[in-house]
Amino acid sequence: MSARTVAFAGPVGVGKTALVAALAGIEDALVGAQEHRTGRTALPHEVLCDGVGLVDLPGSVSGPVLAALAAADAHVLCVAADDGPTPELLEHAHLLAALDRPVAAVCLTRCDRAGAAPGLAAGLPAVDAAVPVLRTDAAATGAVDPAPLLDVVRGVDRRPATGPVVLHVESVQEVPGAGTAVVGGVLRGTLAVGAALQLLPAWHDALVGAVRVRGALATQAVAGDRVVVRLDGVPAGEVAPGDALVGPEAGVVRSRVLDVALGEHVRLAHGSAVTVLAGAREVRAEVAWLGGRFHQLRLAAQDELLVAPWDRVVLRTGAGEVAGADVLDPAARRQGPSRELLAALARRARGERDG
């Protein structure tokens, strides 16, 4: 099945918003995205283009940005041809690599400016040599033919809609006379009207009263869809960005201590501080190196994370390094490393069940 949602990632100022507007052939995409950038936190914004949702992401990495990337079917990395491999660009490329999600294409913007380097995308993390590179001018003025990009993203498989539903809340809307609505991407499962779900971390019962997918009422949404979900039975003020809407047996827990397997060989010293991006939350944590062939770490977070086994989390260091890690134990106990612990974590890393 072809992809439906593609997220446009890249640093501030590379022209993502203008590109998305031009691809969709509309001007209000620019206005809508700017409205979502007001206030303290910038938020993703989606427009529709020939059946494919184009998600314009803010250039600053945050919890909501990570949640939108994780839930998307595919990613497009936007690169300014005249900027060179800036630290901000490399951070976004490493972020996509850490998420281990497909990069469908690279959009090289500002190709008409002096100093533009058409080959800049080659060698970037997360960008395979076979990934197509699409080129636009400085402002992506006028309508840009979306056909080449849509052909690419339709060749990417959709996220599987199996398992209990999980949605990490990126923002909250108050609907006058109708209660509370949450906005985000469906990470896993199928979210249906009438479903009885739970809202974490409060473990508040929530009934799905209505679902909007790209502005239209729908009876359900599946993994990869960006949605607005009206929740019945949830009082105003009982839900906040960073919360999670989950189905029964989703396995998502509240935790400040979790054991993970580091996906990349990034050097993280014992006792060092990192920022953990998990779901739509961004929390500082201290690293304890456990060792083992799967590079196991223990993360002691300063605030609660909402994670499940095998969730992919992203670690950022103060030096700008970015690495992905798989959650082995989302509710680890504060105990020192032992042979038994390392053996149990190794079994989980291999996909084996304990006992």
Task: Summarize the model shown.
The protein is an alpha+beta fold. The protein is 16% helix and 39% strand. The strands form four sheets. Strands 2-3-1-4-5-6 form a six-stranded mixed sheet, sandwiched between helices.
Descriptive account of the structure:
Helices cover 16% and strands 39% of the residues. The chain is α+β, with helices and mostly antiparallel strands and 355 residues long. The protein has three domains: 5-153, Rossmann fold; 166-246, Elongation Factor Tu (Ef-tu), domain 3 (Beta Barrel); 253-349, Translation factors (Elongation Factor Tu (Ef-tu), domain 3, Beta Barrel). Strands 2-3-1-4-5-6 form a six-stranded mixed sheet, with helices on both faces. A hairpin with a 3-residue loop joins strand 11 and strand 12 (204-213). The two termini are 37 Å apart.
Could you list some keywords that capture this structure?
355 residues; alpha+beta; Rossmann fold; Elongation Factor Tu (Ef-tu), domain 3; 3 domains; 6-stranded mixed β-sheet; 6-stranded antiparallel β-barrel; 6 helices; globular
